[in-house]
Amino acid sequence: MQPLTGKTIILGVTGGIAAYKAAALTSKLTQMGAAVHVILTDHAQKFIQPLTFQALSHLPVHSDTFTEPDPELIAHIDLADRADLVVIAPATANLIGKMANGIADDMLTTTLLATKAPILIAPAMNVNMYNHPAVQANMQRLAAYGCRFIEPGEGLLACGWIGKGRLAEPEEIAEAVVRFVDEQSHQHTESRDLAGVRVLVTAGPTREKIDPVRYISNHSSGKMGYAIAEAARDRGAEVTLVSGPVALPRPSGITYIAVESVQQMYDAVMAHLPESDIVVKAAAVSDYRPAVTHTHKVKKGEDGLTLQLEKAPDILQAVGERKHPGQFVVGFAAETQDLARHATDKLRRKNADLIVGNNVLAEGAGMGTDTNLVTFFSADGGIFEQPLMSKRQVAEKLFDLVLEKRAARKRRVDG
Ligand code: PMT
Predict the structure, then answer these.
(1) Cβ(173)–Cβ(187) under 8 Å?
(2) Residue 205 DSSP one-character state
């Protein structure tokens, strides 16, 4: 199942040069399973044609409030009612101004006033327009109405100025949409089945210094571990997240510990282990580190350079050795072949209760992606293959299984 299957999204496109990026966004959201109903303003059509969006979304494109193809319906009200989410990308200063003031003078703005669906706004404009107090005040007013913003990027703008105002990339907007939909869907079915439980999560890569300017690391983005921490928090757990260096925003409502090296991650995990009920090791931790960290930058010589590496501490193994009977330990196995063999071997060697195996070469799985394709290997011999899901959905499935296994263990202990 795709992460947006069954979702109806209205994509409002307004008249800025970044309108061309909305085509790629339409394609991405459609590929993720959403039904994308595009509404173009008149000015957007100066930059891009409705046919582009129709071809990419396989759905009619709307632009005129008074074109009513179905006499049974009023198009903008029908769309407004059916939407699970509205995304406006790019959102011009003009559109933001109209929205903030309740103006409804075209198909997009009437739909926006009529909808009760959440609204995500991705602004794009000249840096001086973006910083203008009127635009800032309008955005603040919209935020107070409950709209969410996807921050524009900084850089060279089409107008020649350098600064903030460039539309976020289609990939970033699509990721924000998936995160938002996950959050919403969980809030709707929210249960507090982890209330009172203390969950320790590790996420992201580690960095092992070679010298002051170089290090050994990997491509982990932290998305898997952060999704796990957020899922645990939303289910009522008290969460500690030990994170390697990543580009994700810090989740609210949790204890956050930033680390870089394996040793720092090891120390943070060991410090919090005694009071943790569930430990989830989603971080991509270095197995090796330079035997010597040079104090000064290593200079280029005539010949090649040999780096001496030593084994880094295995944090999961240390946790497995120290865990007490009430604790439940989940490790990950990032493999490129023989997933089941390696995952079950790690389960046994590291004394974990569950291993989440992911073949990081599989399409849509592994590092940097918003989705993952995992199999759960349980210490009692259970193997649970999962379909491709968003990382948040993987996290939810993981906690469903952990709770089931903890309850079964408690029943065994209680006799
Ligand atoms: O961060 P993302 O971009 O979202 O990507 C997610 C992910 C691919 C990183 C994640 O799903 C994942 O697989 N994490 C584990 C990566 C890893 O280090 O796998 P491993 O098979 O090398 O290690 C096995 C287990 O031992 C892991 O739980 C790891 O955290 C732990 N380990 C490994 C080495 C070490 N020195 N200490 C450890 O604790």
Answers:
(1) no
(2) B
Catalytic positions are 159
Measure CA 179 to chain center: 5
8-185 placed in CATH 3.50.50.60: no
Cβ(401)–Cβ(189) below 8 Å: no
Give the Å distance between the CA of 225 and the centre of ligand 1. Answer: 10
Q: Whose CA is closest to 278, among 312, 231, 313, 314? A: 231
Buried b / exposed e along 282-312 (16+ C-beta atoms within 10 A)? bbbbbeebbeeeeeeeeeeeeeeeeeeeeeb
Q: Measured in angstroms, how far is the CA atom of residue 74 from the centroid of ligand 1?
A: 52
Q: 284 CA to middle of ligand 1, Å?
A: 4
Counting Cα atoms < 13 Å in the Cβ hemisphere of 262 gives 21
In degrees and rounded to multiples of 5, residue 299 shows phi and psi of: -85, 150
Does residue 285 contact residue 315 with C-beta atoms inside 8 Å? yes
Give, for ligand 1, the residue of 220, 286, 342, 363 to mutate: max count of ligand atoms closer than 8 Å to Cβ: 220
Domain chopping of the chain, boundaries: 8-185, 193-414
Tokens 């800032």 map to which residue? 136
pLDDT in tens, 56-112: 999 999 998 888 788 877 888 889 999 999 999 999 999 999 999 999 999 999 999
The minimum-distance atom of ligand 1 relative to the CA of 335 is 21
Q: For domain 193-414, give the fold.
A: Rossmann fold (3.40.50)
> Does the CB atom of residue 346 touch ligand 1 within 6 A?
yes
Model pLDDT, residue 397: 93
**Which 3 state secondary structure label does DSSP give 166?**
strand
Q: How many residues does the chain have?
A: 415
Per DSSP, what are the bridge partners of residue 37? 10
Torsional sign, CA 261, 262, 267, 273: positive
Asked whether the domain spanning 193-414 has the same topology as the one spanning 8-185, the reply is: yes
Average pLDDT over residues 105-126: 95
